[in-house]
Each structure stands twice: as structure tokens, then as C-alpha cells.
Specification:
Radius of gyration: 19 Å
Subcellular location: Cell inner membrane
Function: Plays a role in cell envelope biogenesis, maintenance of cell envelope integrity and membrane homeostasis.
Order of helices and strands: HEEHHHHHHHH
Pfam family, one: IspA
Largest sheet: 2 strands, antiparallel
Oligomer: single chain
Membrane topology: Multi-pass membrane protein
Number of domains: 2
Shape: elongated
Strand content: under 5%
Family: Belongs to the YciB family.
Length: 205
């Protein structure tokens, strides 16, 4: 299914985020009454984002038969913190969610480094075959990058407007991730496994 429809995977991954942005921009200056309670555009966008992410995650699971641990963790935190924002009508819980996610990812990667376990490679080795030293370097860089993103999210949501945070969340974070991945192209090349070694390396993970 994925091969016949190459647009489907990015649509599932970015669809809920684009929906969040669209709903927020549509209602950002309005207040809507739901069950007698007034909700602003941010809460309405969050209310749309949660079921959309649940649906796209379920579709990805049905398509592939599996979900990455980061996908599961992200979904749980979105439901918990997004649900708190909607329930308490307070956007701060949802804006705090990326900080928690990035710190958690950084902690997981850091723990893997300390235990000398290649957890990142176990997830991504099929798409990016590298030797053990390459995965160690990438894991360290990615852990530090996630800490940076967590700190940056705190600066943005605590010091800027809701609109600024939504733009940052929708476009800024994906661009930063893309730049990070592109910036490590030299590492990928330097530590790439020869084709004949890929299968052996996968069995060793």
C-alpha cells in the first residue's frame, strides 16, 4: 500500500499537525461555546488534533503491523496533555507536551549510550545502515539535539504568543529536524556499511 501510494505516509504523519494549524488559524480570534463552555481557537485546534492523531496512528499500525516506540509515546503524551488542556481549558498543558517528549527521547537515547545499547540503530538500521561507531555518534548528537529542542520550546511558549508557538510547532520544529538530519549527512557517509555487511549487522542488533 505504501509503495503504490507514496504520498500516504507523509500525509498520515503530517496530516494531524496541518489540521491543528488550520483549525487554529480559522478560530484564533473567536470563542466557540461547546456544552456551555467557551473555548478559544487553540483549544479547538487541540480538540481536533487528538482524534486525528489517534486515527492516523491506527491507520499506520494497520498498514505496517507495528508502531515505533516514539510513535506510541507521542500518542500517549498527546492524549494526556492535550486532554488536560481541553478538560481544564488551559493551553499550557499542550504547549508543554513537546518539552516532555523531547526530554524523554533524550533520556532514552542517553540511557542507551550509557548501557552501550544501540537502540536508535535497532529502529532505523534498515533505512540507514551504519557501523556501531556511527550509531554511537548519531545517538549522542540526537540526544543533545532533543535537549536543545526542549529548551527552545520552553523559551517560545513562555515568552511568545499562542500564534507564534503554533507557527513554531507546525513549521519551525519540522524544519529544525530536517536541518539536523541533513547536517549529519557526512556522518552517514563516513560510517555507512558496505552492502555485503548490512545483513550481518542487522542480525547483530
Amino acid at each position: 500500500m505504501e509503495n503504490s501510494k507514496p504520498w500516504l505516509k507523509p500525509a498520515l504523519e503530517f496530516g494531524p499537525l496541518i489540521l491543528f494549524f488550520a483549525v487554529f488559524m480559522l478560530y484564533r480570534t473567536d470563542t466557540v461555546l461547546i456544552a456551555g463552555r467557551p473555548y478559544g481557537g487553540f483549544i479547538l485546534a487541540t480538540l481536533a488534533f487528538i482524534p486525528a492523531l489517534m486515527a492516523t496512528t491506527a491507520i499506520q499500525w494497520r498498514m505496517t503491523g507495528k508502531l515505533a516506540p516514539m510513535q506510541v509515546a507521542t500518542l500517549v503524551l498527546v492524549v494526556v496533555f492535550g486532554g488536560l488542556s481541553v478538560w481544564l481549558n488551559d493551553p499550557r498543558f499542550f504547549t508543554l507536551k513537546p518539552t516532555i517528549i523531547y526530554l524523554m527521547f533524550a533520556a532514552i537515547l542517553g540511557t542507551g549510550l550509557m548501557l552501550r545499547r544501540n537502540w536508535l540503530g535497532a529502529v532505523l538500521s534498515e533505512a540507514l545502515p551504519m557501523d556501531a561507531e556511527g550509531w554511537r555518534k548519531l545517538t549522542l548528537r540526537m540526544a543533545l539535539f532533543f535537549v536543545f529542542l526542549a529548551m527552545l520550546n520552553e523559551v517560545v511558549w513562555r515568552n511568545m504568543s499562542e500564534s507564534s508557538w503554533v507557527w513554531f510547532k507546525t513549521f519551525g520544529l519540522p524544519v529544525l529536524l530536517f536541518v539536523f538530519l541533513l547536517g549529519n549527512a557526512g556522518l552517514y557517509r563516513a560510517h555507512a556499511l558496505p552492502p555485503k555487511d548490512v545483513a550481518d549487522d542487522d542480525r547483530a542488533l
